[in-house]
Amino acid sequence: MITVVEGISAAGKTTWCRAHAAAHLVPETFPEERRSWPETGSEVARAWTDWNAHRWTQALEMEQRTGHAVCDTDPLKLHYLWGLCRIGEMPWPQWDLQLAETRAAIAEHRLGLADLYLIKTITPEAARTQRDGDIRRTRDRFELHLRLMEPLTEWYVAMEGALAGRVRWTLPPDMPDNTAPNPARYDLAAFDGLIAALPRSR
């Protein structure tokens, strides 16, 4: 079983993962060289897809080893670029490049759709309070993440339609462990249904 825990910065997802799924955790990680990458172009789309595929492989390995992988943020990660395009921070042609790379990776079983998605929504006020209370982390893109709350929600509403019963809008008091395997893990029709359900622009 693979569970994804999602939410904007300071929503509490990492805290929940560490408290409830430490033995099954696939942490959020980033390539060290990412700050030197260009923002747009086919090469950076491919580089991000390769990194996301690396995290998916970690999830598969954890699932194989322990029976359950819990991912702090979605290895698919496509919602992030789509959200940036939705709020005008990235050009839509970059979305087209990233979408094509991601779809090809799913077809190759290098990326996939999880069995369960736990989504933590939060008000800006609550997120600011939690950010201010966590002195261990520097959140230099916090205001940007606040703006991404609406498109993040739109993404997982579309996901809920594509994968009925696999999206929950809360972080439960205990780690779920009774979700049936997702038969659409690598199903391009389900993925295409998700993409078709997304609003394209404002």
From TrEMBL:
It comes from the Bacteria. SUPFAM superfamilies: P-loop containing nucleoside triphosphate hydrolases (SSF52540). InterPro entries: P-loop_NTPase. This is Thymidylate kinase. It comes from Pontivivens ytuae.
